[in-house]
Specification:
The complex is a heterodimer of chains A (404) and B (81). In chain A, a hairpin with a 2-residue loop joins strand 2 and strand 3. Chain A is 41% helix and 16% strand. Chain A has two domains: 158 residues, Aspartate Aminotransferase, domain 1 (Alpha-Beta Complex), CATH 3.90.1150; 235 residues, 3-Layer(aba) Sandwich (Aspartate Aminotransferase, domain 2), CATH 3.40.640. Chain A starts with 7 loop residues before the first helix and ends with a helix. Chain A is of the alpha/beta class. In chain A, helix 5 packs parallel to helix 6 and helix 12 runs parallel beside helix 14. Chain B is globular, with a radius of gyration of 12 Å. With 81 residues, chain B is an all-alpha fold. The chains are: A alpha/beta (404), B mainly alpha (81). Chains A and B meet through strand 6 of A and helix 3 of B.
Amino acid sequence: MGLFDQFQDLMRSHAAVKAIGADPFGVTMERVVSPTEAIVEGRPTILVGTNNYLGLTFEPSCVAAAADALETQGTGTTGSRIANGSYGGHAGLEDALARFYGRRSAMVFTTGYQANLGIISTIAGAKDYLIIDADSHASIYDACKMTAATVIRFKHNDPADLDKRLQRLAGTPGNKIIVVEGIYSMLGDQAPLAEMAAIKRKHGAYLVVDEAHSMGVLGDKGRGLAEVAGVEADVDFVVGTFSKSLGAIGGYCVSDHPEFDVLRIRCRPYMFTASLPPSIVASVTAALAVVERRPELRAKLWANVNTLYDGLKRHGLLLGPQKGPVVAVQLPTPELAVQAWQALLQSGVYVNLALPPATPNGASLLRCSVCAAHSRHQLERVIDTITEVAYQIGVLSEPARAAG
Amino acid sequence: MIATDEVFTAVATALEPFRKEGIPVTAETDISQDLTLDSVAMLDLLMELEEKFDVSIPLNLVPEIRTVGELADTVRRLKEG
């Protein structure tokens, strides 16, 4: 058996998708013009699949800070924090994050994936239990694979099922660590965090919340779902990323745990990888200041969310269960989703295509992410284009069109 | 040895939709090779069995479960505590 024979099924399904047209998993942005526009296949294209929620990728203060750090501190750190030392910027960013969240400690990782991988795999010991939402991100599942802890899944966003699972463990030794996400990346729904925090208290468990898609998006201060739900004191570890609202790359964890810093000499995904380059650290630090200084960006994002979500809903398209910066249009089959995705790209609208098994309940999704920098005109064009394509492929029918 | 018990029957029934034509589900049926369910369908199926038997099946045990009989054994063991 050949080394790559194990991928035969995957290659076959990928080839079938590519046979319909452009490769949804291999798009090249020939030139990115702004947070919301790029040239793709030679065409000006509106970007509605970036996770760039606040539109900070071209924010002048972030670009200037990055350029200055690049000039004065060089292109990279060429090593890990543990073996090769931290730069002042790393410590400065950690201080800024701890301040932003009102927490005792913060730790910066090189990617968001590594932040989940590192924190979850390290805090869960061999005799402990990780109780994770069934629809958790791959980084959470991968973290679970790295531990000797017992891993139990509960039904997605179902506090009663979470309670039941913890009840079954009552009296067993070992820490119970619940892991949930603020906003789930595929359908954009939020965890019922207040109820989950109550369950956490009832069972004396720990709570980790991944705010990757909710940081900068939810809460008066932009701290995420825990802030909105009023349960920040119950969240033992907040994990997040710099690659969405903060417009760069990297990950972090904040916590009030007094011994948190021991993770720096125990957490392998932190220890055995090169640290973030100075330019990224500088742009993220500047972006965090923008999140604090300009709450109007969040207001603009939510106005845009309303425009896109309500606009698509009005035409009768099936969307995710909850309004938010991830707007997922659900299509009946993967084939129709691929066809629609390609038609959209040809019409100058880039969204994400999400297919099973990466999606919950086998859904086929045109996943849109809204940006504070989208103009009303852009969003109206996106709504018109998606609706038009939905008619073309027969997902919407004429009577609905007349009503719309 | 387990072909007649309640847990095995429930597991075999839950796997019925993934049976290949003409091949019966027995205790020796290899879940990943002899049936048509992928890893995601397997996780959904586990959730269904957890609900039915009021147990939590740790994810860590899943890679060790090869046959239908082993799956039924795992559920039974967890149920008996």
